[in-house]
Amino acid sequence: MDYQTIRVEQKDRVGWITLHRPEALNALNAQMMREVVAAADAFDADESVGAIVITGSTRAFAAGADVKEMETKTPEQMRWHFADWDRFACVRTPVIAAVSGFALGGGCELAMMCDIILAADNAKFGQPELNLAVIPGMGGTQRLTRAVGAYKAADLVLTGRMMGAAEAERCGLVSRVIPADDLLSEALKTAESIAAKSLPSTMTAKSLLNAALETPLREGLRTENFAFVSVFGLDDRAEGMAAFRQKRKPEFIHR
Ligand code: CO8
What we know:
By secondary structure, this protein is an alpha/beta fold. It has helices at about 30-45, 65-70, 75-80, 85-90, 105-110, 145-150, 150-160, 165-170, 185-195, 200-210, 215-230, 235-245; strands spanning about 5-10, 15-20, 50-55, 60, 95-100, 100-105, 115-120, 125, 160-165, 175-180. The strands form two sheets. A six-stranded mixed β-sheet has the order 1-2-3-5-7-10, with helices on both faces. A four-stranded mixed β-sheet has the order 4-6-8-9. A hairpin with a 2-residue loop joins strand 1 and strand 2 (about 15-20). Helix 10 (about 200-210) runs antiparallel to helix 11 (about 215-230). The model has no long low-confidence stretch (mean pLDDT about 95). Octanoyl-coenzyme A (CO8) binds near residues 25, 66, 78 and 105. Octanoyl-coenzyme A binds next to helix 2 and strand 6.
């Protein structure tokens, strides 16, 4: 596929998506959504890809949904606009957001659809929608509250202020803060370490981590137990344990 708003490449077993609308600080428009979802779906369907990284530029991961594109939309049109972002959140392959610069509004929400958020020390997160008299619409009131708790989420959403990488790490929004110059190499290293594992087991773990955000504990533990028992049927599980006993690196078939 010929992408206009993103750059897509595969680095060994890592699928790499770079948001690329430098003239608009990577503001997310409908075309970018279609392209990101198409690229992520293609990586997700490809067994040679074991992890995906999504990143932006040094200055901006994404400064939100494209305000200029949304300005004239009616409620009827907004019902369809951006509906597909949800498909990105359903990708089964682990996804890492490598965030440098602004991750605002839809940009912060896109990062929160990922499994791991690596933040450069210059990253700035926020949900400034109320400054435009709209509200977060891609998970900002829901995923952010689950990630950082009710009071921090309310502080960010209701004031629209930005928070830096250190504060974002303290409150649990980001997995790790990395010096800006090392962000992409660290993201690649992290993705490679995930992609080296057994893909069926990794996808199972990802799906359970996501389930934990929406299932009561007892039900989640039951589901985890079923899944734990079922991975014992995998050839890769036999290989992983044999390799441990034989003190060698595992050679997973499905990786
Ligand atoms: N949309 C469109 N264009 C943008 C956006 C954006 N979100 N952000 C920046 N740009 C453009 C600017 O208009 C400017 O373009 P131009 O040079 O043509 O005027 C260019 O990018 C550079 O931006 P600035 O000159 O403003 O750069 P600064 O460094 O001065 O400021 C900021 C950077 C602080 C990031 C500033 O650009 C800003 O405040 N941007 C808007 C941030 C924002 O409000 N984001 C939330 C948008 S709403 C949203 O995300 C809702 C998501 C839910 C949708 C759900 C649908 C169902």
